[in-house]
Amino acid sequence: MTTELDPAWTAEELSSIRDGLVLAAELLRAELAILDSASAQAVSASTLEVLHDEIDIAEHRAELMQDAVQVENTAAILEQTEHVLARLDLGLYGTCEGCSASIARERLEAFPRATLCMTCVAA
Ligand SMILES: [Zn+2]
Fold first, then answer.
1. How far does the centroid of ligand 1 lie from the alpha carbon of residue 122, in Å?
2. Would the N or C end of the chain have less CB density within 10 A of its end CB?
């Protein structure tokens, strides 16, 4: 029974995975919007800080750097989430992008956005 080793995802499972990914994408978009407005505020605050001492300026720079990193990470996760959703809609969920093998179920359960099997990740 090869299907035991490599069980196909049921329509129900795929639908609940899809719901989870859609929700995650919505949350990520909301988070990005908040980060965008937060860094916009930080920019105007740091302009004012130029008039104050250098320690404050340095702190603001550190905050801005953190925001930028967070925006980048969040944007990357959002992109990956949308990518997986697109693949799911094409019927390719759980198929490795590298070698077209099936990605282990337990890997996808732990990391639903995975698009590479463990062999390709390690390569
Ligand atoms: Zn692979």
1. 9
2. N
What are the backbone angles phi and psi of residue 80, rounded to the nearest 5°?
-65, -40
Cα(73) to centroid of ligand 1, in Å?
24
- Tell me if 99 sits within 8 A of 117, measured CB to CB: yes
Number of structural domains (the chain) is 1
* Ligand 1 midpoint to CA 121 (Å): 7
Question: Residue 57 sits in which domain range?
Answer: 11-94
Tell me, in angstroms, the distance from the centre of ligand 1 to residue 113's CA: 14
Q: Cα(100) to centroid of ligand 1, in Å?
A: 6
- Is residue 58 one of the residues assigned to a domain? yes
Tokens found for residue 69: 């990193």
pLDDT in tens, 42-68: 666 666 665 566 667 677 778 878 888
Does residue 6 lie within any of the structural domains?
A: no
**Could you report the per-residue pLDDT of 6-40, keeping only the tens digit for each?**
557 899 999 999 999 999 999 999 999 988 887 77
Ligand 1 centroid – CA 33 distance (Å): 34
pTM above 0.90, yes or no: no
Q: Pick the closest to residue 82 from 28, 12, 4 (CA basis).
A: 28
